[in-house]
Amino acid sequence: MERITTLKGTGRSRLEVKESEIQYLAYLEKHRVLTLQQLHTVATELFGVILDSYSFKNRMRKFEQFKLIRSKQYADGFNGERFKYVSIGIRAVDLLIENKLLDADFNQQNIYKYIRKENLLHYLVTQQAIINILLANQRESYMYNQDIFSFSNSDYPYHDLIRKKSMVFGRNSGAQHAAISSFKNGTSQKSKSNYRTYTIIKPDWVIKLDLEEDDLPSIINIEADMGTEPLATLEEKFWKYCILAKNRSHERHLLLFVFPDKSFSNRSSFVLQKKRVKNFLNILNLQTNKKIMEEAKISVATVPLSGSAERSLLFFHGNEVKG
């Protein structure tokens, strides 16, 4: 029998919240913003809530009345993406703290930033890839949240040291050459007094799978590509991940470039940019890039959003993933 928490509303109104509902509210807080369709998938397929789409929408209206969630509508022109998206509300913060799913010193002002997320489509495509991967893993392992972990780049930062007078990873025309040089030269012992901390790369999201003690942790670094960046920028990211994988040989790394397609939502207008994917694959298959990839022992894959789970499972099973 699920534990029930009763919330008081105005007048005599009451809302009973089940333990499984508190769990998916915790997921929503961790992942900041989701479409209503994504949250329904999380609730029903990750946390076992039994509600059809219509009933779930009604339930969310009640949640919003009791300030457990906040919502907005997104519309990109007449033929573009259209959906409702949600983040947690102020009373959900109290509920999560009471259930020890959130630290007591959590800054409640953060929740007002969530719903105003910049690059919203990019962020939500990333979230769909995460959901795809977590669901696929759960279908095989039946143990969500026991050995697989989901992190934002602020929760799982990739830091290193760099000489104070030189920021070789600054955005300039020589950044890739510096990355290549740094990779080929390797790392050396560094005096902390002469170096400062910098961030190697910020993935859109990180998924980590901890296996048996004798196995290396498996890390999936997700990069969602919306087609707005030059391919040279994607190649620069590739170089930085090669350096990351070389410096973190205690982990297995997969760099997963995700390209949106119609699987994003039931009404999605996304069309997979096949030519862009092909051109980027040609860059990755250059002999120099293939050699560095092999030396770094990093797996790299370019996939449509609908194929994100399949490649991830291959990687989690210890297979090398390419292309």
| Secondary structure: helix percent | 40-55%
Number of domains: 2
Q: Order of strands in the sheet with the most strands?
A: 6-9-10-11-12
Q: What is the chain-wise order of helices and strands?
A: EEHEHHEEHHHEEHEEEHEHHEH
Helix and strand content put the structural class at: alpha+beta
Mean pLDDT: 86
The count of DSSP E runs of length 2 or more, i.e. the number of strands, is 12
Shape: globular
Tell me the radius of gyration.
21 Å
The fraction of residues in strands falls at 15-25%
Low-confidence stretches: 167-177
Oligomeric state of the chains in view: single chain
Major sheet, described briefly? Answer: 5 strands, mixed
The N- and C-terminal alpha carbons lie at a distance of 47 Å
- Helix count equals 11
Organism: Lentibacillus cibarius
Pfam families: Replic_Relax (PF13814)
InterPro entries: Replic_Relax
Protein name: Replication-relaxation
Describe it.
By secondary structure, this protein is of the alpha+beta class. It has 2 domains: 4-117, Arc Repressor Mutant, subunit A; 128-316, no CATH class. The chain contains 11 helices and 12 strands. The strands form 4 sheets. It has a 5-stranded mixed β-sheet, with helices on both faces. A 3-stranded antiparallel β-sheet has the order 3-5-4. Helix 8 (231-247) links the parallel strand 10 and strand 11. Helix 2 (36-46) packs parallel to helix 6 (120-141) and helix 8 (231-247) runs parallel beside helix 10. It is globular.
